[in-house]
Amino acid sequence: MNLPKFPRQFIRKEDEPGYQPETWQPKWHCFCCHDTGKINPHLAKLVIEEYDLSKDKIPRCQNPSCKAGDNLDFLGSQVVDYRFTAAICQHLDSIHREEWRQTTETKTALVQEKIAQLAQQKSLKKPARTPSEETEIQEKYAAIVDEYNKKP
Ligand SMILES: [Zn+2]
Q1: Which of 24, 63, 86, 134 has the most CB atoms around it within 10 Å of its CB?
Q2: What's this model's pTM, rounded to 2 decimal places?
Q3: pLDDT at 22
Q4: How far is the CA of 70 from the centre of ligand 1 (A)?
């Protein structure tokens, strides 16, 4: 029998051929809890009014694609808030994803503006003379000197 040929499967996506790191790509996968299992306080506040990180139970992330919340389960329901369902976490994830996208766009726009400003500053500086410009200037100078010398 002929052995099959498998394409390579990389553990880290950075090793994949043609991988391009995205600027400002966050390190986390879950936008609900940043892979900590604890829902982001500012997101928790969207559901629990006056939510206080230091006083309230820990809102546990139940995003279906996220397993980080498992790390909190040993604390039990005395400490962990299990009311945030998968649907809520998915919604919070998409809200924060959108916030992140907008922040990234703003940052990109700012950087592009800076680059444009720098380019403009550069073009305001006198460019170096080309050899032909240099010759032209010398010829003009010589002509002026010549003209001056002819005068009595
Ligand atoms: Zn999560």
Answers
A1: 63
A2: 0.61
A3: 58
A4: 10
